[in-house]
Amino acid sequence: MSIFHSLNASSSALTAQRLRMDVISSNMANVDTTRAKLVDGEWQPYRRKTVTLQPREGQFSSFLQVAKGNHTHGSANGVTVTRVKEDRETPFKLVFDPTHPDANEEGYVQMPNVDPLREMIDLMSATRSYEANVTVLNANKSMLMKALEIGK
Length: 152
What we know:
Elements: H1 5-29, E1 37-39, E2 42-44, E3 49-55, H2 60-68, E4 79-86, E5 93-96, E6 108-111, H3 116-150
Antiparallel strand pairs: 1-2, 3-4, 5-6
Helix pairs in contact: 1-3
């Protein structure tokens, strides 16, 4: 097992959480965007986007084989973003505002399916994950520095 596997795992997690925070920020910035995409000749509100993460090497047995020395090719540990997708399951919110330029005949406006409270909770989760991975990265760096000092 390479000494850099733990650094690679932490760095991939940092990259993934950073992308997750960027997508959440985009959702928050578009919470009032009623004209985001033209579909069939009509403007639709912004749709919330979500990030899907997945482990790079999902089988514990492969890690075990590498640790035991039975498996020679290294495992690409860490996490990767598999996709960023639009939330098509949550419906748009209808808000009564007859003076809005995008109001329908009854005076309702379709607003994005972004819930600011949910986004803030997701942002806090991504931030905590990012901070935890920075701590792990610093601990790994410290251990590597101590190992180099042994050789002096």
